[in-house]
Design a protein that fits this description.
The structure holds two protein chains of two kinds. Chain A is an alpha+beta fold. Chain A is 47% helix and 18% strand. Chain A is built from eight helices and seven strands; from the N terminus they run H-E-H-E-H-E-E-E-H-E-E-H-H-H-H. The longest helix of chain A is centred in the first third of the chain and has 14 residues. The radius of gyration of chain A is 17 Å and the shape is globular. The termini of chain A are far apart. By secondary structure, chain B is mostly helical. The longest helix of chain B is centred in the middle third of the chain and has 25 residues. Chain B is flat. The chains are: A alpha+beta, B mainly alpha. Chains A and B meet through helix 1, helix 2, strand 6 and helix 6 of A and helix 1 and helix 2 of B.
Chain lengths: 173, 64
């Protein structure tokens, strides 16, 4: 499986302390909880550490490490073992929290970290594109969210009014 | 909505749940198959209309 080869390489990068922590998000992350969701890329969220003398964190060490392992740059992606991978910094407090609280999972015996279902659902609510709304409906219909946990996340992240609006629009008959 | 349509919707929902409950290893295999199919479709699309590609150069259809 090419996917596990990608995970092995990213874990290797973590062992080499190029990155501190990572978590899978996006459609691939959602696939850990829902039915497989068609996508061509893998979204990997990482904390980009600033180096001494640097004001802006850089993904350069990630690129350097992976290019040295045979990855290829294609547009905004790094193609690893045939999978286009995007390394993304957490761009909101919710995303930071999702990364911090990511869940350890196993794929064919390889350890990886994935955003929790509740964080993926909250991120879908926060992002709010059509495909995110559709995914949020899937999470609700699959009845896999810990609703108390989800509500506590959206309260903390001040997304409650957005959630009420979403419920009125998509979940109420 | 007639009863036949109801049963189609129920059956779709049940298939989705069945797929969601597969072991993750199996779901990732399906995901890879879906990705290969999408890339093949995108490549064909590009042959039909050359010059139309996204910024990534991956020529993918609208998706995640």
């Amino acid at each position: 499986m090419q996917f596990t080869a990608v995970l092995k390489l990213i874990n290797e990068m973590m062992d080499a302390e190029v990155i501190d922590r990572y978590a899978i998000g996006g459609a691939v992350g959602a696939t850990f909880y829902l039915e497989p969701i068609a996508t061509v890329d893998i979204d990997i969220f990482v904390s980009f550490e600033t180096r001494p003398g640097q004001l802006i964190a850089s993904p350069r060490p990630i690129f350097d490490f992976l290019l040295g392992k045979g990855a290829v740059v294609k547009g905004e992606y790094l193609v690893i073992e045939g999978w286009p991978v995007q390394f993304l910094p957490p761009t909101s407090p919710l995303c930071h929290e999702a990364l911090k609280e990511a869940k350890e999972m196993q794929v064919e015996g390889i350890t990886t970290w994935v955003f929790t279902a509740e964080h993926l659902a909250a991120l879908a609510l926060e992002t709010g594109r059509a495909k995110d709304k559709s995914r949020l409906v899937q999470f609700v219909e699959a009845d896999i969210l810990d609703i108390d946990r989800f509500r506590s996340i959206i309260d903390r992240q001040e997304l409650s009014s957005k959630w009420q609006q979403f419920q009125r629009q998509f979940l109420e008959p | 909505m007639n009863s036949d349509f109801d049963s189609i919707l129920k059956s779709k929902q049940s298939l989705r749940l069945e797929l969601a409950n597969l072991p993750i290893d199996e779901k990732i295999r399906l995901l890879e198959a879906l990705r290969d199919r999408q890339l093949a479709i995108a490549a064909n699309r590009q042959q039909i209309s050359p010059g139309e590609s996204n910024a990534s150069g991956l020529k993918s259809p609208p998706q995640d």
